[in-house]
Amino acid sequence: MIRLRRKTKPILLENKSSWSKDAKKVWIGGDHPIVVQSMTTTDTADADKTLEQVYGLAMAGCEVVRVTCQDARDAAGLPAIVARSPVPIVADVHFDHKMALAALDAGVAKLRLNPGNITSPEKTREVVARALETKTPIRIGVNMGSLARDLEEKLGHTPEALAASALRHVDLLEELGHTDIIISVKAHDALTTIYAYRLLAKQLDERGSPYPLHLGVTEAGLPREGTIKSSIGLGILLFEGIGDTLRVSLAADPIEEVPVAWGILKALGLREKGFDITACPSCGRAEIEVVNLARMVEAIAKEYTAPVKVAVMGCVVNGPGESKMADVGIAGGKGKGAIYRKGELVGTFPENELLGQLRLEIEKVIADQYPDYLHETNREPTPA
């Protein structure tokens, strides 16, 4: 069983542009669902190109999108992005307080900013005052590669250094009266990340600062290695009840990050989105190409958002049993296959008709069990 989730302060993210009132509002923390995030890789100055990627991420299931704002060109693109985005936009700002002010003026839903990195106290106060005025949350984002020099010299590249750096920034914001705070402490390896978040959660709770935590293994790597690192690091923390939002950082198209994040949440039973496909690894008993069949079922799954559970089995040994635990099951045979609904045989069909019959049964399941998802399908229902 997953441990009781850490109690955190709920923080509202919402774009503040007068043209973006239809954009989705997202709560992070409290009793709200754990939120999936990602970040664009486009030039923020190119608003149209960035929005194209934002919409792609949103369609894949991303609920909050971060964009960089490192210079005046980026800042100029932000108003259009915020106004037209279907999800809350977070501005990623480092060092330059003018970019933070421009992002706030553009109406972003959140700033990712380490206030201690703005060297002038006056400039820091100006940014925080504007954030308070616009009711904009701030995410303190500490990475192992950007520790303050004194903490790096004193504590090294350790979980303790990450937590200490985050709390230093928290102190600055609290002193200036800003408490709509979200925090991340990311390392490139899973173990350091786990220990850092555990330590930070403990220290925050001990001091009565129940701020929500944004989970991530930073610069996790190429898709396969990055998925493994993120699944282990973030999965363990979420299992322990730590974490209110997450981003899987892969060296790939950011849209590839989204299904991995959802997969972690689904595997832990924390949230459901899209199909949950159980597929056997194939063996000598299989009388059909199980891997190919599973891939074809996965292709069908991409057309729907309902959390349908599908079992794909290569023979009748485990097929009926696995199907009892799924909404729909398919078990292959020689040139034919059986389709099950909750373990009950629907029928046996020739191999060339299997996928069409499976799709029909899936759509019946959605209509019967998940009617709220009917409008979210990307295709017209298959005629009966």
Automatic annotation (TrEMBL):
<dbReference type="InterPro" id="IPR004588">
    <property type="entry name" value="IspG_bac-typ"/>
</dbReference>
<feature type="binding site">
    <location>
        <position position="322"/>
    </location>
    <ligand>
        <name>[4Fe-4S] cluster</name>
    </ligand>
</feature>
<comment type="function">
    <text>Converts 2C-methyl-D-erythritol 2,4-cyclodiphosphate (ME-2,4cPP) into 1-hydroxy-2-methyl-2-(E)-butenyl 4-diphosphate.</text>
</comment>
<keyword id="KW-0414">Isoprene biosynthesis</keyword>
<dbReference type="GO" id="GO:0046429">
    <property type="term" value="F:4-hydroxy-3-methylbut-2-en-1-yl diphosphate synthase activity (ferredoxin)"/>
</dbReference>
<dbReference type="InterPro" id="IPR058578">
    <property type="entry name" value="IspG_TIM"/>
</dbReference>
<dbReference type="GO" id="GO:0141197">
    <property type="term" value="F:4-hydroxy-3-methylbut-2-enyl-diphosphate synthase activity (flavodoxin)"/>
</dbReference>
<dbReference type="Pfam" id="PF04551">
    <property type="entry name" value="GcpE"/>
</dbReference>
<comment type="pathway">
    <text>Isoprenoid biosynthesis; isopentenyl diphosphate biosynthesis via DXP pathway; isopentenyl diphosphate from 1-deoxy-D-xylulose 5-phosphate: step 5/6.</text>
</comment>
<dbReference type="InterPro" id="IPR058579">
    <property type="entry name" value="IspG_C"/>
</dbReference>
<protein>
    <recommendedName>
        <fullName>4-hydroxy-3-methylbut-2-en-1-yl diphosphate synthase (flavodoxin)</fullName>
        <ecNumber>1.17.7.3</ecNumber>
    </recommendedName>
</protein>
<keyword id="KW-0560">Oxidoreductase</keyword>
<dbReference type="GO" id="GO:0016114">
    <property type="term" value="P:terpenoid biosynthetic process"/>
</dbReference>
<feature type="domain" description="IspG TIM-barrel">
    <location>
        <begin position="24"/>
        <end position="262"/>
    </location>
</feature>
<dbReference type="GO" id="GO:0051539">
    <property type="term" value="F:4 iron, 4 sulfur cluster binding"/>
</dbReference>
<feature type="binding site">
    <location>
        <position position="315"/>
    </location>
    <ligand>
        <name>[4Fe-4S] cluster</name>
    </ligand>
</feature>
<dbReference type="GO" id="GO:0019288">
    <property type="term" value="P:isopentenyl diphosphate biosynthetic process, methylerythritol 4-phosphate pathway"/>
</dbReference>
<feature type="domain" description="IspG C-terminal">
    <location>
        <begin position="277"/>
        <end position="363"/>
    </location>
</feature>
<keyword id="KW-0411">Iron-sulfur</keyword>
<dbReference type="InterPro" id="IPR045854">
    <property type="entry name" value="NO2/SO3_Rdtase_4Fe4S_sf"/>
</dbReference>
<keyword id="KW-0004">4Fe-4S</keyword>
<comment type="similarity">
    <text>Belongs to the IspG family.</text>
</comment>
<keyword id="KW-0479">Metal-binding</keyword>
<dbReference type="InterPro" id="IPR011005">
    <property type="entry name" value="Dihydropteroate_synth-like_sf"/>
</dbReference>
<dbReference type="InterPro" id="IPR016425">
    <property type="entry name" value="IspG_bac"/>
</dbReference>
<dbReference type="GO" id="GO:0005506">
    <property type="term" value="F:iron ion binding"/>
</dbReference>
<dbReference type="Pfam" id="PF26540">
    <property type="entry name" value="GcpE_C"/>
</dbReference>
<feature type="binding site">
    <location>
        <position position="280"/>
    </location>
    <ligand>
        <name>[4Fe-4S] cluster</name>
    </ligand>
</feature>
<feature type="binding site">
    <location>
        <position position="283"/>
    </location>
    <ligand>
        <name>[4Fe-4S] cluster</name>
    </ligand>
</feature>
<keyword id="KW-0408">Iron</keyword>
